[in-house]
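User: Predict the complex.
Assistant: Input components as received:
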Amino acid sequence: MRKPFIAGNWKMHKTVAEARALATELRDGIGNAPHRVAVAPPFTALAGVVEALEGTGIEVAAQNMAAALEGAHTGEISASMLLDLGVKLVILGHSERRHVYGESDELINTKVLLALEQGLEVILCIGETLEERESGKLKDVVVHQIDSGLRGLDEKALGRVTIAYEPVWAIGTGKTATPDDAEEAHRIVRGRIGELYSAQAAESMIIQYGGSVKPNNVKGLMAEADIDGALVGGASLKAADFIPIARFDQ
Ligand code: PEP
């Protein structure tokens, strides 16, 4: 039985004070939810949010991480710096990192391996653009991103990876994939994990859907057999939206 996992990606929003205030509202509204819940504040607010959520079941994730352990990498943040703050998880390969900041499959793979080796868990984001979907390339793109993102990873380490299927055309656009469309893609992801690893690995892989998840559509998505959670952008910025998403079945 896979445990639902709801994560909020705050992107480049919230000062330290705003982030702590939201974390406090989430602590009061979600507390020890029956599901796994995580939030990913910007780097500057990580320490404050870790402190505000201490002792709750809500985990704190980073939105990105450097592909190197330390050194001359101006503007970058390393895995050990995240671990030092009490961060346990990192989102890698988000579509904004891929498409706005030009991160390649190879770079994302390096980060995935490094994060796991250093002791972080990973949420690996994948997903097709509208053009790729409309030209019938959904399966090719998703399979390629899984193969390249997980290259060199053994099945034991895979147990610390969550995959977030996020069609690029649905991120921040208000357009959600229908539950059927999302389920089709999730089945492709799970099938590929089965081919690369084992039936057991495929069965236990947590696959989140991301792309304009809101309180009014989360239930329909979560009802699908292969949708195990959500990665939420815009609707994670307000407690009034994120709490009902995290408590989608209550
Ligand atoms: C995201 O950033 O991962 C995301 C899914 O954003 P939104 O929910 O705003 O579409």
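The chain has a mean pLDDT of 96.
Let me know if you want any component modeled separately.
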